[in-house]
C-alpha cells in the first residue's frame, strides 16, 4: 500500500497550484506568484506506453513571456479522438520537448476550475 501511495504522490507532485489558459497565453500560479507566456503550438506526439496503451501530447513553446515561465509545455488529456476531457496533465520544463516526452513518473493533473471537490474525487476514482 505504501508503494502505491508513493507512486501517486510522485506522479501528482507539483508546485503549480493553478493554471490559467486564455487564447495563446498560459499562466502558472505558484503561491502568490504568477508567471505567464504566450505559447506557440509545435505539433503533437503519440506515445506508446509499456502498458500497451497509447497517449498523445500536444507540444507548445514559449514565444514571449516571463523569465520564470516554462520554455516548453506539453498537454495531455488521455484522449486521441476529439471530445471533452474531465482532466488533463501539463508537463513543463526548460530543457527540450524531447526531454519532456521521456517524463513518465511525474504527471501534474489539473481539473476545470468550476468542478467541485466531490466531482474531482468521483472522476479520479473512475479514471
From TrEMBL:
This is Zinc-binding lipoprotein ZinT. Residues 2-127 form the ZinT domain. One of its GO terms (molecular function) is zinc ion binding. The keyword Signal applies. It comes from the Bacteria. InterPro entries: Calycin (IPR012674), ZinT_dom (IPR015304). SUPFAM superfamilies: Lipocalins. It holds the Pfam family ZinT. Keywords: Lipoprotein, Signal, Zinc.
Amino acid at each position: 500500500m505504501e508503494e502505491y501511495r508513493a507512486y501517486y504522490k510522485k506522479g501528482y507532485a507539483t508546485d503549480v497550484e493553478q493554471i490559467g489558459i486564455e487564447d495563446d497565453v498560459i499562466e502558472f500560479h505558484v503561491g502568490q506568484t504568477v508567471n505567464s507566456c504566450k505559447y506557440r503550438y509545435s505539433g503533437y506526439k503519440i506515445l506508446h506506453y509499456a502498458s500497451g496503451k497509447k497517449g498523445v501530447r500536444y507540444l507548445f513553446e514559449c514565444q514571449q513571456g516571463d523569465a520564470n515561465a516554462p520554455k516548453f509545455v506539453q498537454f495531455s488529456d488521455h484522449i486521441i479522438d476529439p471530445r471533452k476531457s474531465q482532466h488533463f496533465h501539463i508537463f513543463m520544463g526548460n530543457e527540450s520537448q524531447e526531454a519532456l516526452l521521456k517524463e513518465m513518473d511525474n504527471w501534474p493533473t489539473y481539473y476545470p476550475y468550476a468542478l467541485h471537490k466531490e466531482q474531482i474525487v468521483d472522476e479520479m476514482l473512475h479514471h
